[in-house]
Amino acid sequence: MNLAVRDTALREIMDDPHCDPERLDATLRRFGAVNRLVSGWGHVYRRRLRPHLAALGRPARVLDLGSGGGDVVARLAALAHRDGLRVEWLGADPDPRALAAAERLATANVRFRCADSATLLAEGETFDAVVSNHVLHHLTHDELQRFTAESLALSTGPVLHGDIARDRVAYGLYAVGITPLAPGTFLRTDGLRSIRRSYRADELQRALDGHGGPGDGDRAGWHVENHPPFRLLAHATGHA
Ligand SMILES: C[S@@+](CC[C@H](N)C(=O)[O-])C[C@H]1O[C@@H](n2cnc3c(N)ncnc32)[C@H](O)[C@@H]1O
């Protein structure tokens, strides 16, 4: 498998609006287990989100953009609740199939909406922080510029986009490790395609530099960190 360059021609099955709805639902529901194993949000929460939310000294609002099956925002909500932080969480995703899977995780302080970043922005919504998981590598070049610019315009505080790093070892380990969770889902095919579509840290930094928003240039101030073994975190401060 040649992972030297991003394979941007590959599309994931779940991005096809006509894919098998039962397998898609099973995939979205099983993301919880996969994300818990690979996505590293416990670390990002402790290092970047918790300190900001705690310092506010008031109830906060946090947005998960592209929330999919909803497990990442539900997990962040559980971590914050355990720490005694008062936070209203919103998971937003324009795909109604994702919303249907996520709604089972809704609680009094975790809500889900069928909406994309542009819609929330047009409504004048703002949040104390914006996060996303595994969204960036799905997007085309232009979609990436819009999505990241909109995420900055929606946040008065940190903007944290977590994603997979393209890596040969990650590819091999995922191919083997996903086997018990994969039956009846797109997890195997889409996970491997995701890794092939994903960025390396320097590529994502270049893609984000100079594209903070219309005329914003590199003042958007994105920093892309490698979180070993196989994670990237793009972070910046919002300007809502
Ligand atoms: C692979 S899924 C990731 C789901 C979830 N975050 C996870 O980690 O399992 C990417 C999601 O991003 C959503 N998305 C794409 N563009 C978006 C935008 N502009 N605003 C909000 N969500 C978007 C898609 O609908 C899709 O459900």
From TrEMBL:
CDD domains: AdoMet_MTases. The keyword Iron-sulfur does not apply. The keyword Protease does not apply. One of its GO terms (biological process) is methylation. Pfam families: Methyltransf_25. One of its GO terms (molecular function) is methyltransferase activity. Keywords: Methyltransferase, S-adenosyl-L-methionine, Transferase. Residues 62-150 form the Methyltransferase domain. InterPro entries: Methyltransf_25, SAM-dependent_MTases_sf. This is Methyltransferase domain-containing protein. It comes from Microbacterium pullorum.
